[in-house]
Model the fold of this input.
Amino acid sequence: QVQLQQWGAGLLKPSETLSLTCGVFGESSSDYHWIWIRQPPGKGLEWIGDINHRGTTTYNPSLMSRVTISVHTSKSQFSLKLSSVTAADTGVFYCATKRVGHFGMDVWGQGTTVTVSS
Amino acid sequence: EIVLTQSPGTLSLSPGERATLSCRASQSVTSSYLAWYQQKPGQAPRLLIYGPSSRAAGIPDRFSGSGSGTDFTLTISRLEPEDFAVYYCQQYGNSPWTFGQGTKVEIK
Done:
């Protein structure tokens, strides 16, 4: 069973770059999507994007110009970078994973609270 | 982008009652790639149902999912105290993947 543990800076100033990493622990085959999701305070969930087992990235069009998701296979990690943050980017960021195909996102990281404030 | 609309926004029920949550999509969900998640305060979401009627590992059989095309339903047959939470539907058949706005199931 895969487990995810995430880390990264929790307090940023406007215009800085958010950087989070998600470590993958336990057995995993190559057939996974590695996903980032965020949740503004008191609001619902928003899919940021994912990278699949072929290394193909897909991003939410609303964030595409500022987002980079990458995987570091040798370190069993994947990461999120979100540039030019503003207060609107404040919230909890989750990493998650799902197997390719009809499966849902069954493993989640613990979440990282990110606050953007001057 | 597929917009998912969940109803009702809030469901007030007593333990032991049946809960029926609806998720309607603005267009047909490809291959019925529709999932339901439960989220409690301060916790990450937990996968309940995917595809859209398969229970995730360890999920009690009082949770069931159904539907196809644009209309999907999550049913909790008899509410337990630990089931009071917010529930989200999500489609992952079309990019961008999208979530509904959530249904809060609260104790009446």
In short: Chain B has a mean pLDDT of 97. The two ends of chain B are 35 Å apart (CA to CA). Chain B touches chain A at residues 1, 31-33, 35, 37, 39, 44-47, 49-51, 54, 56-57, 88, 90, 92, 95-102 (CB under 8 Å). Residues 20 and 71 of chain B are 13 Å apart (CA to CA).
